[in-house]
Amino acid sequence: MFMPEQRPPIFYEIHSNLPREGPGDNRSTRRAFKMLKDLPASPRILDIGCGSGMQTVELAKLSKGSIDAVDRHQPFLDQLTERVRKEGVSRSIRAVKGDMFNLEYGDGRFDVVWSEGAIFVIGFERGLREWRRMLAEKGYLVVSDLCWLRDDPPGEVVSWMKAVDPAVKTIAENLETAKRCGYRIVGSFVLPDESWWENYYGPIEKKLPSIKARHAGDEEALRFVAMEEKEIEMFRRYSKYYGYGFFVLQVE
Asked: Domain segments of the chain: what residues?
């Protein structure tokens, strides 16, 4: 949930060498991809905010297409490159260091624009509007983003969310935004809780004790670790009230 400009070095120490840089799993990537119909035999795909690229590799296997995988953090791209090599999909994926606020691709360049857990950086509506131009006719935009799942969240989680991500909307609100931005709703679903724990929060929790020991006496670093622990604990307690919505949209 932390914006890139807010991330101190310890953020990357905590988030290095994780299976994923946010909630998700290959099962959910496959579920979303299966909603895409009538794609070309070799679709052109842009994966924005790819992180270490678990979903990028899965997309390469599913699509048999060509993928530009964009991230601003070079160590994540290095991890992606190694993962791509091990999985034998090097011919399908090109790692690109770039900024989602300034994507220098021509209009109509891609059949699919994909972004798992990263659109919050630019904002849901802004991402939908700005990325739309890069899609070919009847192209697809597929994103996942944090959402409220119920309209009666307890005050504690509401106050916490206002502090860390005040732009969070409900699934229904995001679907209405997508329609206003010129998309047809193909489908949506909520990531299961295990999508948060298996590849993201679980691995982070295992790392935190040794990180805290290394930074004993560093108050700033320990404050940041405490923020990570708080985020994990809030999801453990309140996951029925918020989670990640997966949105599969098509240009009208």
From this structure: 21-196+239-251
